[in-house]
Every structure is written in structure tokens, then in C-alpha cells.
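Now for a concrete sample entry.
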Amino acid sequence: MTSRRRLTALTIALIGALTLGMSACSAPEENDDASGSVAPVTINTSAGSVTIDSIPKRIVAIGDQWTDAVAAFGVTPAAYGTTAQMQGGAVSPWVKDKLGSAKQINLSGDRVSQIAAADPDLILLPGFGVESAEIDKLKAIAPTIPSITGAQIDPWQDQITLLGTILRQKDKATEIIDGVQGQVAALKKANPGLAGKTFTFAYLYSADQIQVFGDPKDGAATLFADLGLTIPQRLQTVAAQQKLPRFPISTENIPELNSDLLVIAASSPQLAGTLKDLPGYGQLDSVKRNAVAQLDLTAITALNLPSALSIPYALDKLKPALSAAAG
């Protein structure tokens, strides 16, 4: 894959995530030997089982979710690469102070050689933008986890649980998950009116095209479901018919975005400024109620690639619109 095609694939994946699934990983044996070593663990992934002989010390995390997950444990990766950086932005604010001296991987360059140079003992890859031939090369370098579930966007809880097993920090994994889910539960309790309400999640990526969220199993859908929100049935139907978790519509069809809550972003500040002038935008129920979260690329990334670190950031950005939708 050329650098241009790889960059396009990774960027599109931010707005084209596939369905979630459940993961499985075997627990580590408790009978560590007297020398203090630990027993190997075998992780069952979408691409087969991966055996990790010891607690990894030099993790390479590719993708925003894995980078965040490793950092959530207080572990500094040997190297990392994120899509936010590929788009010309800085490291996401919720993780930038947790990466220490970690080396940045240029994801549009020769990733295999860069990863090899980091001398990893574990490689974590996202479920998108990586070809099987590249994965095979990385497996020859170190144990490689290409995706837990086979989906483009793995559930963040599954990633934390898996890392808790690999790092032998199961209690820490539970603490991380409970902490984030507690924040979500508190926000839901503060906004009981969200129960049964609908939401639309959209991305204006050109002057005449909008990407629309239609699959309730999408990686970003879990957060909204936990708050009591659902995707309008008409959008779910289109997603199922087209077999696309997120699908494009023309800006002429903006009435299709009608719902109780609208979460929307644009690919540039210039495009974002055109939203209010699109025919039909002002007639949307969410707009009339001021239940619109118009997000920048950083915030939309926090939702598109949810993690234990990004979700609290996203919740802060959503609170005003959620309150309006609940009312």
C-alpha cells in the first residue's frame, strides 16, 4: 500500500468504523515459579491465538485506542503512532502528558522498519489500515495482536481487560473500567430524560457529503447506548441494507439527521462554518432545542476511537447538548 493510500485508509477509518464483538483471553496461571517469572498467557484474537511468554517491557502501540490503553495503566510505550498526528494535529490532549520519551511512529512511512527499530516485545495494532502481509512481517519481530474482535474499532473495555491480563494487573484493569463507567453512569443519572431519546452522529467531510452513523454495534455507539440513547431506526435500516456501519448521504438530505440529539463534526473549520446554512439544518429538532454538539476533530476522535482516557474528555464536550436533549 502506498503512503497516500495508507493515510487515506487510516483517516477514513475514523469515520467508517465497523461492528463490535466480544473478546476472549485466557487468564495467566497463578503458579509463578520461585524465580519470580510468570507463566505465559495465550490471547485469543480475531487472527488466532498469540502467546506472550512474559510481562512485556517494550510495547509498541499503533492507533489511538491502543496508545491510550497502554497509557491508562501508567505504562510508557517504547513507541506509538496515532491517526491524530497523521492528520497534522498534535498528540491528543488526554494522553500527551503520559507518553514520556516514547518514540513516535510515522504511520505514513515504513512502519515495519520503524517498529522493528523500537525493539518491541509486544506489538498492538488497530483493526483498520493494516494489511495482512504487514501483520505477518510484524509477527516475525514480536508477538503481535492485530485486533481483538475483528472489528475496526474494538470495545475499549476489551482492550483494557486484555492488557490487564498481559501485564498481570487485573485489579488495575477493573479499576480503570469502573472509573470510566462510573462517570458515564453519573451523567446518565443527572439526565434521566435521555432514556429513549434518539441521537445522530455525523461527519461533514466535504461540501456535499455527510458520513452518518447507523450501526448500533459501532465502536462509538456503546457510550451513547449507556446514556440511554438510540440511533433512529431509519438510519439503522439504511446501514443494514448497505452493510455499512457508517454511510454517506448528500447534504441535500440533511433532514435525515433529524433526532433528539445531534453530534456532528466537519473535516475543517471552514466546512464547520457552513453547517448552519445547509438547507433544512435549522428545521432539525435537535437544532431547535439547542441539543447539538458541534465538535472539532480532537473531540470527534475521542468518540470515534473511544478509550479509557478519551471518554472523559468527550463527555465534557457533550454535556451541554445532552442536557438540552434530556430536557
